[in-house]
């Protein structure tokens, strides 16, 4: 056989599917693919995409029913077990470094939906900016991703994280990230299946960029950054039943009376705005009639309103004319806004470090449990948070109920109790 014949034979061999491309490889062209905008095809990314997806295909049965974390390098970098941040939770990390919203959309069915996930935590969009996609294109792809998740399951909780801050030096300027997050919110506004988590404000500095102590390269979080993300997610995961699934074992101190029994809303209800008279009572019910207030394992949860903000109050059905001490603990998601009503005036109770008005509290613990104590004597309440004074002379009426407000974000209260003073 001459050299010409050998070369012809080799051409025929390699033009056939003797060595076919992996079924998990990036499609060679954009033709027929869903969505719009960039699909990365750098050699390193093609290799990573194929390797990750081929490996996950072998774990489909093992990862059935997992809580799926879906995204790019920020998600991938958290590790297979999300750094052990959620003990006891079956998790599956489906982040691919360098991925875009369109890339996630293309692989959604095989990498995520095939697992029949019990929930999805989604963070995606920053790499689209580096590839010069517009916020509008990015948001349109996000809508298709959300639609695919919802079509697969109408009950599966979806936590949509805001695109985290970065830097113009990384081709991710703050104004463009803010625009994406605004469009993301508009895309899911009013959808009770999707909860937005403000992971932009959580990490942004006063210019809207990432902070080096948490994002050393101004793009990827370090251990400190991941710990803050985990803390921000934990209250939402608790509400959806992934973590903190056991009842609170707290025992009342001598002389105190509990205002919340931990398992339903007995003793609480809504009141008319004008007359302030009770309109609904929720004795024996685990949730208010609009599901905004829910009793879950010792926590009275004020859920995140799908419309972004909705001011609403839940009140005790009894009133408190005597001098008393009110003690309770609260936990807030990033930038959550709420309040505690003492008889009727509102003491601001928020994620203080972001939402204020007391941004410089030294003892406040973001996204952890904090204690408020209000000592009410002769029409004046002395109010503290973790021992720091919020208001030393908070004037209150002679009598009235205790109330909890919901506004934006998720707030949780527990161990709500009073002690009558002589």
Explain the layout of strands and helices:
Elements: H1 3-15, H2 43-57, E1 67-71, H3 73-76, E2 91-95, H4 101-111, E3 119-123, H5 126-130, H6 135-152, E4 158-161, H7 174-188, E5 194-197, H8 223-239, E6 257-258, E7 268-271, E8 278-281, E9 293-296, E10 299-302, E11 309-316, E12 324-332, E13 337-342, E14 346-350, H9 352-355, E15 370-377, E16 380-385, E17 388-395, E18 402-408, E19 411-420
Parallel strand pairs: 1-2, 1-3, 3-4, 4-5
Antiparallel strand pairs: 6-19, 7-8, 7-11, 9-10, 10-19, 11-18, 12-15, 12-19, 13-14, 13-18, 15-16, 16-17
Helix pairs in contact: 4-6, 6-7
Molecular structure report:
This protein has helices at residues 3-15, 43-57, 73-76, 101-111, 126-130, 135-152, 174-188, 223-239, 352-355, and strands spanning 67-71, 91-95, 119-123, 158-161, 194-197, 257-258, 268-271, 278-281, 293-296, 299-302, 309-316, 324-332, 337-342, 346-350, 370-377, 380-385, 388-395, 402-408, 411-420. The protein is an alpha+beta fold and 422 residues long. It folds into 2 domains: 12-239, SGNH hydrolase (Rossmann fold), CATH 3.40.50.1110; 257-420, Exo-inulinase, domain 1 (Jelly Rolls), CATH 2.60.120.560. The strands form 3 sheets. Strands 6, 9, 10, 12, 15, 16, 17 and 19 form an 8-stranded antiparallel beta sheet that branches. α4 runs parallel beside α6 (135-152) and α6 (135-152) runs parallel beside α7. The longest helix has 18 residues, at 135-152. The protein is elongated. Mean pLDDT is 95; it is low at 6-19.
């Amino acid at each position: 056989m001459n050299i010409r014949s050998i070369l012809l034979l080799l051409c025929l061999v390699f033009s056939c599917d003797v060595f076919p491309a992996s079924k998990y490889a990036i499609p060679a062209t954009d033709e027929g693919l869903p969505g719009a905008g960039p699909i990365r095809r750098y050699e390193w990314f093609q290799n990573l995409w194929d390797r990750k997806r081929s490996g996950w295909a072998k774990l489909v049965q093992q990862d059935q029913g997992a809580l799926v974390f879906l995204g790019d390098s920020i998600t991938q970098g958290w590790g297979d077990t999300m750094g052990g941040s959620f003990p006891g939770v079956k998790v599956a990390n489906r982040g691919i470094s360098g991925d875009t919203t369109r890339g996630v959309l293309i692989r959604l069915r095989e990498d995520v939906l095939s697992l029949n996930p019990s929930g999805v935590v989604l963070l995606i969009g920053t790499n689209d900016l580096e590839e010069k996609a517009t916020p509008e294109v990015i948001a349109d792809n996000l809508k298709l991703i959300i639609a695919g998740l919802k079509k697969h399951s109408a009950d599966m909780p979806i936590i949509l994280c805001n695109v985290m801050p970065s830097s113009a030096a990384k081709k991710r300027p703050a104004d463009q990230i803010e625009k994406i997050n605004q469009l993301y919110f508009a895309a899911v506004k009013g959808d009770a299946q999707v909860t937005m988590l403000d992971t932009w404000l959580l990490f942004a500095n006063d210019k809207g960029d990432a902070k080096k102590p948490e994002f050393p390269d101004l793009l990827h979080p370090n251990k400190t950054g991941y710990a803050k993300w985990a803390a921000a997610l934990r209250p939402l995961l608790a509400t959806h039943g992934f973590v903190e699934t056991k009842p609170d074992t707290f025992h009342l101190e001598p002389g105190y009376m509990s205002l919340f029994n931990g398992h339903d809303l007995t003793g609480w209800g809504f009141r008319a705005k004008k007359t302030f008279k009770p309109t609904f009572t929720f004795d024996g019910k685990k949730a208010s009639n609009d599901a905004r207030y829910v009793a879950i394992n010792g926590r009275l949860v004020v859920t995140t309103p799908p419309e972004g903000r909705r001011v609403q109050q839940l009140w005790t059905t009894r009133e408190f004319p005597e001098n008393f001490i009110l003690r309770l603990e609260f936990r807030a998601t990033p930038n959550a806004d709420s309040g505690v009503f003492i008889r009727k005036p509102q003491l601001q109770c928020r994620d203080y470090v972001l939402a204020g008005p007391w941004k410089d509290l030294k003892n406040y613990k973001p996204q952890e449990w904090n204690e408020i104590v209000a000592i009410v004597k002769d029409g004046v309440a002395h109010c503290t948070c973790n021992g720091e004074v919020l208001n030393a002379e908070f004037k209150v009426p002679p009598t009235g109920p205790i109330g909890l407000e919901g506004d934006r974000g998720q707030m949780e209260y527990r161990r709500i109790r009073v002690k009558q003073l002589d």
